[in-house]
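User: Hey, quick favor. My workstation is busy. Could you predict this chain's structure for me?
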Amino acid sequence: MNKFGYVYVASLSGAYYKAAVDSAISLRDYYPEADITIFTHEKLLKESDKNLFNKVFTGIPTHSRAKMWGMSRSPYSKTLYLDCDTEIRSENIKNVFDILEDRDIMFTKIIPHVSKNRIIDSSNQLEYHGGIILYNSEKLTLELINEWYSLYTEQRTCDWKNSRFSEYHPGMQRWDQFTIWYLLQQEKYKSIKHSLFPNGGHEYNYIYLLEDDKPDNLPYRDLEQIIYHYTIPASRVNESYIFPTPGSTSDFN
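Assistant: No problem, here it is.
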């Protein structure tokens, strides 16, 4: 197993695959020696892109949250998972693994004013963003990520009011960030060392909405953009789906 590496998971749509390729190119620009892995579908993979990646895995599930499936199969002892719609903008990307230290998994912080309300219940709100995740490959960490993947299926298809999640706000049903929060409350994972990146890690997940000229964005104006995170327009994603019914329950395997 290689020591450190970067993982992309491009599922369902050619728009995500192209974005992952573009992001990996930007990573190579700032860190030519980076060890990069992509998980994607054989239908999306282009022969001309293979040299960009150190490792390529196909045969992934046809589901919008195949990211957790790929994350749990990382070939690295320390992994930085990146959403496909990202761009590397600093050579400091090579130092990200130093942040993990003795922790098992780390997340950047959700910025309330650029995100929808993340109310879990009267005492809790979501803090962990799911777009940039730093983690190790210890047995329990990988079990956590595997269960994150499987439990999300249950979460999305259950009768919320009559499920194990009934005490939580029904608005949480669509969010995989809720799934990981829920799991980290369970006794099985109490020993998992999890935390936010230092100071929220916004330089490692610089959301494009922070560029808007709004007062709430002023504290982030001069922040270094190590990883810039944009959003692919839904129309572009939809028009390049490679499956007729992407993300159906039957596809989640």
